[in-house]
Amino acid sequence: MENLILLPEEENALRIEKLRAAASVTLPENTREEDAALLIADNATVYYLTGRVFSGWAYIPLDREARPFWFVRRPVGLKGEGVMEIRKPEDIPVRLAEQGVKLPRTVGMELSITPYNDIIRLQKCFPGATTFNVSPAVSVARSVKTPMEISMMERSGIKQEAVYRKIPKLYTPGMTDIELDVAIENLSRLEGCLGQFRISGQSMEFFMGNVLTGNNADVPTPYDFALGGRGQDPSLPVGASGAAIMPETTVSVDVNGNYTGYMTDMTRVFTCGQIPEEARRAHDCSIAIHREFRRRALPGTPAADLYNMAFEMAKEAGFERNFMGHRQHASFCGHGVGIEINEMPVIAPRSRDILALNNAIALEPKFVFPGVGAVGIENTYIITAEGARCITNAPEELIPLH
Description:
Strand content: 15-25%
């Protein structure tokens, strides 16, 4: 048998306390913390709380004096304080009663992502209890990284950087975007990439990442990604399409950086022969936006201000119509990242997010030019009291494919 909790005891306690603090702010009016508890089932948040994924529910009382319980359906054989094996959610109130725990009057569930039928079934397990949405509190708690989480992201960044530095050697003349994509994915997996690309939300899908060349970078996708691509099949309409990598085009590489359960997000641009000066200047503009972001991205800064800064720099350089797409434009130019690729805060014009110390943010001011492809880099940053610290440090300039 092995312990359910894989995190150090202090780290586990810190993460539970962060979630409790964030959830307490969102409690329904006149609700006491000692009368409320959270039921967490989402894989990403279960992993955040325990260091592993299991099928079941984390039961977190908001009363700081009360201990959490871990109701596990699969795998069997896990041990530890508060661990209870169950077959179905209806077992939860029974097992709580066996422990002398009074059922909560208010239950926080991940209503933003939990299927409706599951919500109804769980509500019946706590008759008379008020249900509230804890999903926003989960997002807030997870957006501010602990030192351990930052260390895991830094390790992913080092691995991802090593892969990107080897990409030019993977290229051979006549390659298609799919062939280069597969070569990068193969190298990534051999270097330890887990392959898991977690995205929050019911309608966001992806595989290992995005390799876009030429006009395929300008093909709209149904997903709210910075760049699109036709993909290989309408069932997954995003990414490399099988097009040949042609002279005087770019290859934008934005592939999986999940090496530790915490991912980094990085884009670099490779060139096949000479590309137009306009595209080169736009790439330089992206790098300049990153430099300004590093200086301005301080705790307390409104995320919308940072988007506006990036957009104004793009507009001043004459690339407003190419910024974050051409035929279709993304609604953001940066986002939080960690266990999932799309966490808080969001760098968008209508974002209400405020940067906090130890946020992890991927900034991706990109530009798309018909016939040429995409330019512009993406880096992952940790927000510090001195500004944004980059943890994805591959070369930023346009990189020739040899």
